[in-house]
Amino acid sequence: MNIGIIGVGYVGLPTGVGFAELGHNVICVDKLQDKVDALKAGKLTLFEEGLEDLFNKNVNAGRLSFTTSMKDAVSTADVVIIAVGTPPHPITKEADMKYIYAASSELAEHLSDYTVVATKSTVPVGIGDEIEKRIRQVSPKAAVDVISMPEFLREGFAVHDFFHPDRVIIGTNSEKARTVVEELYSVYPTRPEILYVRRRSSEIIKYASNAFLAMKIHYINEMADFCEKVGADVYEVAKGVGLDTRIGSKFLNPGPGYGGSCFPKDTNALAYMARHTSVDLSLVEATIKGNDERKQMMSMRILAAVKGVEHPKIATFGLAFKGGTDDVRESPAIEIISELVSRGSKVVAYDPKATDSARAILGSSIEYASDPYKAVEGADVLAVLTEWEEFRNYDLVKIKGLMKRANIVDLRNILDGQKAVNLGFAYKGIGR
Length: 432
Ligand code: NAD
Description:
Number of helices: 17
Number of strands: 14
Strand content: 5-15%
Helix content: 40-55%
Bound molecules: nicotinamide-adenine-dinucleotide
Shape: globular
Distance between the termini: 53 Å
């Protein structure tokens, strides 16, 4: 099949590479000339484990290409996948549809034979209708079905999740579109489970899923605070709770609050939608408020560890919103660091992959270390902000030797706390 993908970001790129790997012909279009130039020159524009080899393989096989021309991506496509951003409005926090609407009108000009337009971007309920309306305004006679195809990949595991999705949700009531979707997924060695629902239900499934996961994280974070106060260990609690199969063990890791390009944005967008339909989503509202406050609380926790030190030097491990990605959108690490800087701290940060993306936000307000041991030189405290697996293997003896004070605040509980204490560190984790 021929597939056009609009928007070559954290969703569009792995999706394009994945479908090409499974044998479809994929043309990806993006507005950003620099991005397309880089991809054409064989340079990946984001980090995802396992993506580079598949990208090279499929470009070389002629099944995957990149363009800035909407016509090239759309005119021969059986399926056009919209994967542009739906960022939060800076004031209302509702999902901003400007890229979706622009892409809809632009793609409409180039539709020829019957085409399925699939929305992978996360869009509020009813936006499928709006996309269809805009396509028909430009191209009234187009043979087109607009379907909802929400994306559930986890950044850092995008390649794995593409090939092994838990579920595929398709929102459509068109039989013709269903036939095309079946063909699209027929190339999987094991066809994933496809759940067909109404388009509006599909749009809500994405928000309802993300809001539930955000609530689960916030819940265990609150339990972590409670455990600290009463002398319990949140990991033991999470393990015991998670053994209940009705609850499950995933997303019960305490930390500095959720971040990333999805949970903050999608919980806010859902709450906005509900407010405008006079429905009280009080659990979602409480989660948003609690998570926002948590990041502030975490900054205070780090500052408490250097109480009395004027202009402390704070080393941080981590800038990305989670391990395994270079994405810093809504990263708790960025918010915490900004707060520390605004309160007079000098911050030196190390991250295995996210330094460049963080620099675009934090600029010269902090220093960026090229290796973890440089970051901790002369530091009054080390704050661990992202859960990169490699942090577990760093040499704590060496770190102690380089720091001014043997002092760790581990907001991800990723270091060996007992070992750190045995080595003479003042060590503060979460929920213990
Ligand atoms: P992104 O910002 O990484 O990428 C979007 C790309 O779309 C950009 O490169 C931008 O230049 C391009 N674009 C915008 N308008 C365009 C147009 N008219 N024509 C061509 N290109 C255009 O965004 P992302 O993280 O990939 O997210 C995309 C959507 O998927 C969002 O709605 C997001 O909520 C959803 N989503 C993201 C994730 C994730 O893990 N990032 C997971 C599930 C769903």
